[in-house]
Amino acid sequence: MLKTIKINGQALPLKPSANFLFYYRHARLSGEDAPDFQSDLKRLADMEKLRGEFSKIDDGNALDVLQKTNIFEFTAIIRRMLWTFAYAADKSIPPFEEWCDALEEYDAAEASNTVMELVNDNFFLMLGVPKPAAVQNA
Known about the structure:
The protein has helices spanning 20-24, 37-49, 51-54, 62-68, 71-89, 96-102, 108-127, 133-136, and strands at residues 3-7, 10-14. By secondary structure, it is mainly alpha-helical.
């Protein structure tokens, strides 16, 4: 299932891949340890549990946002997943660090929703089983 989002005003195709975990390990900055997809997914789930707390944050106060959320960690994980799905769709994209340096503008909410849909699709692809109809229609 191919999805497209806008990054820097241009369409970026994204797709799940059976090689996702292998590609994901390459989504890292110089000197950084290889990311662990399962750990990152757990961190995202933990952050999701805090969603109700977000309404109490003064979003006009950057310090309040930083103190009460893991916004940098969240966006780093989303960028890793975006790059991995983009790489699965197009092997000619730049390496992760270079790709991140070129990021200027994208809709973070759309990106996180799209990434999570693709993570779900990827789960079934990696297992080699069809996606259940109930999940497809959800």
